[in-house]
Write a structure and sequence with these properties.
alpha+beta; 6-stranded antiparallel sheet; 5 helices; about 50% helix
């Protein structure tokens, strides 16, 4: 009676070693073999999640690098990221360095543009509060009036909301907000977190390059005057 469970365990181990991360042993009982099977299945699940995370992150970063300007980059980001984490609606705000306000730059599948705030001040609404605290906010049972999703076939009100800051060091550069019908998994949250860090670096680099260009133009103009 012990041969079959052992064979299942050995077979799954061989498949896993050959790169088949979809293999699963399943329930073998409550004894030591059963606990070993549970540990094996949990291990392969974690590996699958890490592979998915790294693959999706690389694909999204590649998408971002293919576009040539800031507006296109953040639009590509929200369009690609939202469905990858199970979201049905997404928006992305960037901080205006002159007045400190968060201004809408890109959206995904949002219905009812007149109801979507074009800007927030720090501390105003969930977006502003996320900017103020500079930390992720995760909400369930979102009120009906908060957000609305409509497609050709489906209409509904997502119940789960993720609001995540975009930071460079301690500097706030923006906020991304994604709504979903289902709970965000830890892997989804990790993808948003890592991508937000990469976006923060990209935004800071673009800002510095733009600022350097402005200073060069000012210097050139002053030299011409002299």
């Amino acid at each position: 009676a012990i041969v079959r469970p052992v064979d299942r365990l050995m077979s799954a181990t061989r498949e896993g070693a050959q790169g088949n991360l979809e293999t699963r042993i399943g329930f073998l009982g409550d004894d030591e073999l059963g606990r070993l099977a549970v540990a094996f299945d949990a291990m392969t699940l974690r590996i699958r999640e890490q592979v998915w995370l790294k693959t999706e992150l690389a694909a999204l970063l590649d998408d971002m690098q293919r576009v040539g300007n800031l507006k296109a980059m953040v639009q590509v980001l929200i369009q690609r990221l939202t469905p990858r984490v199970g979201g049905v609606v997404g928006v992305l705000y960037l901080a205006n360095r002159d007045n400190g306000q968060l201004e809408l730059q890109a959206s995904y599948a949002f219905h009812g543009g007149r109801d979507l705030n074009a800007r927030f001040t720090v501390g105003e609404g969930l977006v502003g509060q996320c900017a103020l605290e500079k930390r992720r906010m995760l909400l369930s049972n979102v009120p009906d009036e908060a957000i609305h999703f409509v497609s050709a076939l489906v209409e509904g009100k997502p119940r789960h909301l993720l609001v995540h800051p975009i930071l460079f060091g301690d500097d706030l550069l923006g906020v991304v907000e994604i709504a979903s019908f289902a709970t965000f998994t830890d892997t989804h949250l990790a993808l948003v977190s890592e991508l937000s860090q990469s976006l923060g670096l990209a935004l800071e680099n673009q800002y510095r390059a733009s600022r350097t260009e402005e200073l060069l133009q000012e210097t050139q103009a002053q030299s011409e005057e002299l």
